[in-house]
Amino acid sequence: MKYRNFAILLASSMFMVGAGCSGDAGSESSTNTGDGVVSIPDAFGKSDNYIATNALEFILSGTTSAELPDGFDGLSQDEQQTTLDELILAQTTKITNAAKRHVQDLLRTSNEGVEDEEAKFFIYVKPSYSGGEALDPMVEGNTVTWVFQLEMVGSADLIGLLVEASGDETFQVDIDGEPVEFILEPSPSTDAFPDYKRLFEDDIYDIAIHFGGDYNEERYDIETAKWTVEFLLESGWAHDSVSSFEELKHDSGPFVMPIFVEGRQIEAHVYVYHSDMDDDAEAEQSLLRELVELSVKERDVVIYSGHAGSNAGMILDYHPRYELDDDEFKDLEMSNDYQIWVFDGCNSYRTYVDKLMLNPARTFDNTTAVTTVNTTPFSAGYEVINRFVHWFTFADEAGNHFPVSWNTMLQGINDDFPTVHYGVHGIDNDPKLNPHAAEGFQCRPCSDNTDCGAGGNYCMNYSNGNACGVGCTSDAACGAGFECITVFDDPDLFYVPKQCVATTLTCE
Q1: Any idea what the CATH number is for the domain that residue 304 is in?
Q2: What's the total number of domains in the chain?
Q3: 394 in Cβ contact with 401 (< 8 Å)
Q4: Which of 168, 186, 204 is the last residue of a domain?
Q5: What's the CA gap between 350 and 372, in Å, rounded?
Q6: Domain for residue 491, yes or no?
Q7: Are 487 and 460 in contact (CB under 8 A)?
Q8: Is residue 235 located within the same domain as residue 291?
């Protein structure tokens, strides 16, 4: 007999934290790449598409079974389902813990005795959001059998360690005396661009930053909010009534910067909120909640920067403590439009996105979210928030918006804060080609970069004449006969998208 799939809800634990990638993608940059023709690299045709980060997501899968209790056949259908749910949950808890212990033991040797956040290799295992079920449980005789899937984030070279230890990408663990085989597969996800086209479609691009409260005497939340306001003002963002942090109120409105996309002007808005905006220590902090509710309903990008953790949420204040719990995410009125969420706090990878996706307005068709695997140092707050604002609104000297891919944004952050592991959820549905100007530009004749549409496309010097490339993140997005390659060796131009280039070195 076949029973319904069973959703797995388990508590998980964190192990060691790994080191980051090399390179420096976090410095201030301009898009001064020139308007001339770009040379196709001499190394074209070699393996050029390896994407390395300091963490990857994996799926652990396998088949397992459990023995049914005596009298199972005599139970009602509802009672049978309840019994199956309990059996599957208990067995899956054992499976999760056994898998973590096995990989932890493997990494302990490779980490050479180094533990906690200084360890080179790490894992964090949780049930998979998309496949966190007992798939197709089948009852035969006195046994129920099902396929399990667990989601795991770990060091980028974790599979290499596993292959070295066991000979392939599988391992076996005894659970109650029975062998269970695990198959480890990396996520097929690849780099992409934020869906800027959808973000800009109403000509307003608004970003809301909510700084959570802080219990420390130094009040890092207020210091970070102050630095952000200074960053905006020093970077040319305009505000009619705010020229310093002290003048910022909850109803001050946004900082504004005009940007252009293919000749069309977009107004970029940044709203900054912090816990001292509601200073009534005797009352419920309803204003802070109302500001979040407004943002999730109307803003294109929602950033939370503050204390966080498993099954926590947005801790908006500590004087007194007031929290918008992540269990409440599902009940908030949210926009049905494409949104970017950034949860910049400790361990937000664990539960925040799963809880967010329970909201009926949120799907991975309209949501991309950034989370952290590990604890976040206080020093990260200011740097991370300002870098995201910088990259989300990146423009050339003329104000033309320049698309920057997710990996480019995260590279420098993960390099500078290598134990935190910032990552992106929902990236599969984000565009792999320049979201501003992809259609109709590939191989179009050109004399300089300005002939190739919006920023991010470049005029390439093909053997049969100059023709446009198109900004890309994968070969598959470019189509047959093209590869997505890096065209600049200059490390200062790390932000320039790869380009779709014809493999024949001629454009027809």
Answers
A1: 3.40.50
A2: 2
A3: yes
A4: 186
A5: 8
A6: no
A7: yes
A8: yes
Same domain, 349 and 274: yes
Sort 73 into a burial class: Cβ within 10 Å, 0-12 / 13-18 / 19+: exposed
Does 30 fall in a domain? Answer: no
Round the CA-based radius of gyration of the chain to a whole number and report it: 25
Are 172 and 273 part of one and the same domain?
A: no
Same domain, 182 and 213: no
Q: Cα separation of 299 and 318, whole Å?
A: 25
| Whether 126 and 216 share a structural domain | no
Give the C-alpha separation, 189 to 394, whole Å.
Answer: 24
Domain termination residue (choose one: 164, 186, 208):
186
Nearby residues of 178 by Cβ (< 8 Å), 6 or more positions away: 65
Domain co-membership, 363 together with 231: yes
Tokens of 255: 């900082």
Tell whether pTM > 0.85. Answer: no
Which residue, chain included where needed, has tokens 């949120």? 362
Same domain, 277 and 329: yes
Q: What is the pLDDT along the chain (508 residues), one digit of tens a residue?
A: 444 333 332 223 322 222 222 233 333 444 455 556 666 665 444 322 222 346 777 888 889 988 999 999 999 999 998 999 888 888 888 888 888 888 888 777 777 776 666 666 666 676 543 334 567 788 898 999 988 888 777 777 777 777 777 777 888 888 888 898 988 888 778 899 999 999 999 999 999 999 998 888 888 889 999 999 999 999 999 999 999 999 999 999 999 999 998 889 999 999 999 999 986 545 556 899 999 999 999 999 999 999 888 888 999 988 888 889 999 999 999 999 999 999 998 888 888 998 999 999 999 999 999 988 888 776 677 788 999 999 999 988 778 899 999 999 988 888 888 778 888 898 888 999 999 877 889 999 999 988 998 788 999 999 889 999 999 999 999 999 999 999 888 888 888 999 999 999 898 7
Classify burial at 489, counting beta carbons within 10 Å of its beta carbon; exposed 0-12, middle 13-18, buried 19 or more. Answer: exposed
Nearest to 354 by CA among 249, 425, 284, 303: 425
Q: At what angle do helices 77-110 and 158-166 cross, to 10 degrees?
A: 90
Domain range enclosing 257: 196-402
Asked if residue 252 and residue 136 are part of one domain, the reply reads no
Report how far apart, in Å, the C-alpha atoms of 466 and of each of 24, 128, 402, 472, 506 are: 32, 47, 22, 19, 9
Q: Is residue 463 part of a domain?
A: no
Is position 499 within any domain?
Answer: no
Question: Please, are residues 269 and 255 in contact by the beta-carbon 8 Å criterion?
Answer: yes
**What single-letter DSSP state applies at residue 326?**
G
Tokens of 177: 């005396």
Query: Which region holds residue 183: left if phi is over 0, alpha if psi is between -120 and 50, else beta?
Result: beta
Task: Find where tokens 């990408």 sit.
Answer: 169
Structure tokens at 59: 């799926």
